[in-house]
Each structure stands twice: as structure tokens, then as C-alpha cells.
Write a structure and sequence with these properties.
This protein is of the alpha/beta class. Helices cover about 40% and strands about 20% of the residues. The protein has a single domain, classed as 3-Layer(aba) Sandwich (Rossmann fold), CATH 3.40.50. The protein has helices at about 15-30, 65-70, 75, 90, 95-100, 105-110, 130-135, 150-160; strands spanning about 5-10, 30-35, 50-55, 60, 80-85, 115-120. Strands 1, 2, 3, 4, 5 and 6 form a 6-stranded mixed beta sheet that branches. The protein is globular, with a radius of gyration of 15 Å.
Length: about 160
Amino acid sequence: MAKVLVTYFSATGGTRGAAEAIAAELRERGAAVDCAPLGEAKDIEGYDAFVIGAPVNGFRWRPEALAFVELHRAVLAGKPTGLFLLSIMYGLGRPSARRRALSFLDPALALLPRAKAGYFGGTMQGPAPWPLRLAFGVKKDAPLDSRDWPAIKAWAEEFAKELA
């Protein structure tokens, strides 16, 4: 049975929810999973695989997540690793915004080119502000939560195949 660390940065709870869903799916598929915020994931040597998630802020994956990847690159590179992001522009933006969101994991993927990348819609705390609506095509009355739970589950199922 693979021992997996699912770790995440989440200021508002959106990424935590996605990480917990991924952890639950991996457990359902037989893995022993610890799910914890990035700040609590210090001793990672005993894990067989990793999933690291964070939202997008300011057109980039959260720096805390990238710093974790940089710090632990030697361990992560030798084991199955998944990286995921949550982005409101990926979830609700026009196609060009969705395509742009695909680049936000590039700095981490440059460090871990074999990592499995996951891109999911994110959450917002209130109605979309006009700059977000103008720049990315997010509608004024857009839902506050654009996470696609079936896509998150499917990504976790695919990642679980790497643990077999």
C-alpha cells in the first residue's frame, strides 16, 4: 500500500476542499494518505508519492507551493508526484483565459517534468470584480465556486494508477 502525502496551500478553503477530495479518492483506491497544509508538511522522506495543490494568485501558482517543490525537489523527483491548481479564470473565464491558466504550473513542472498536472476551477469570496470580468470574461453573476468535482475525482483516479 502506497503512503501518499497530499499537501496544499489554502487561504480561504477552496484548495483544502479539493485536496481533501483527492485524498479521499486515493484512500478509496487503497492508499494510506495524510492530508495536511503545506506549513505542516515538514518530514516528507517516508512517503511513496505526493500531491501538492495551491490556488492561483496574481497570475501564478502560490509561491508557498513553488517554494515547497523547490525545497523538496530531490525527494519529489524520484517518486510519483501530482501538482494541481485552482483558478477562477480556469473555471469560469473565456477560452483564452483558460489557456493562459495552463501556464501557471510551468515553473513547478520545469522542476518536476514527470509530475502529473491538474487544472481545476477555483472559488471566489464575493462577486467577480470588474477587472476580473473585463480581463478574463468572468460574468458579473458568476458562481462563487467553479470547482468541477467530477474532474477532480477523475484526476485523482488517474494519479492513483501511478501508485500501483
